[in-house]
Amino acid sequence: MKSNILRGLGLALATAASLATASVRAQEKPADFPQRPINLVVVYPAGGAVDVTARTFAKLAEEQMGIDIRVENRVGGAGMVGHTSLAKNTDPDGYTVGVLANPFLYTDILLKNAPFELGEFVPIDEISFDPMVWVVNAKSDIGKMSFDEIIAHAKQTPLQVGMNPNSVFLFVSEFIERAKDVTFNFIPFDGGKQGVVALLAGDVDATASFYSEIGQYVQSGDLKPVAVTGDKRHPMLPDTPTLSELGVPAGGQAWGATRIFALPKGVPEDRKAYLANGFLKVLESDEAKKAFAEAGLTLTPAGPEAVQRQYQESFDTLKVFLAETGRIQE
Fold first, then answer.
1. Which of 100, 133, 199, 210 sits at 20 to 30 Å (Cα–Cα) from 33?
2. Which of 245, 294, 252, 271 is nearest to 52 (CA)?
């Protein structure tokens, strides 16, 4: 009797999964689309967080939507080459979807005189928000201090803080400076990972990074996360307060990496709706939660309305900050 019940439960679960997959495949599918593979364009090198995000998603979407998806890396200029190609050289037919990360796209526009504007991309889904983590060496003199104690110490002995020039890695530490009336000595690196290596070596006192770059060192006890950006505590760091909790107004999604799917402007509405709805269902599936967790990535799926609102709000927030710090003219 028990075995019959288990077999019945297994059949019911399999049927439910099959129906869910069928629902994704049938979601507002245009009669003439897609007739060839969908191309996911990543503007960063293979192996990075955005690339892993795209490849993890592509495998799931092929299974659940019944379509072919390819991942292409268009690299160069720290993202500028890929962003420009998507905005200026891509047919708006729905067959090319950008996997983009804010605010790196925004800094191209606001600081690097990009040949494209914000409105040339149309966000269709949010994939994930990855906040910045402000972190110190756990075995250093400040490794056992609280955030407030570190700031008090820094007012007496300025901290050496690693950063990537004109990027969110720097902006987060500048936010702390301004909110806490403290001055850091900034040490430039080419990226967040290099700052982490320097922190482990004791060459800097603190840096800002993504959890994916420091997770193994936090778990080993070599690094100590002190604070995170965003409105909520990081799911992998439940005991680490947000900067907002500590009196530093770094909430929202401007101060981290929001990974999104975006189309070039002009894609037909029926194709846009099919991709947005189908991709969102995949991202919300149990299979996606499991696969992304195994890849060390979090998911914060959101549809077109929410992601487009966040897209504009984060851009406006960063623009104000860059004007206040004298980097641009409003």
1. 100
2. 294
Q: Where are the alpha helices (DSSP H) in the chain?
A: 2-26, 49-65, 80-88, 104-111, 147-156, 168-180, 192-201, 211-220, 269-283, 286-294, 304-324
CA separation for the pair 88, 110 (Å, rounded) = 18
- Rg of the chain over all Cα atoms, to the nearest angstrom: 22
279 φ/ψ angles, rounded to the nearest 5 degrees: -65, -40
Tell me the backbone φ, ψ of residue 76, rounded to 5 degrees: 135, 145
pLDDT digits (tens, 9 = 90+) for 158-214: 999 999 888 899 999 999 999 999 999 999 988 788 899 999 999 999 999 999 889
Q: CA 220 to CA 233: how far, in whole Å?
A: 20
The residue type of 47 is G
| Nearest to 86, CA basis, from 255, 267, 315 | 267
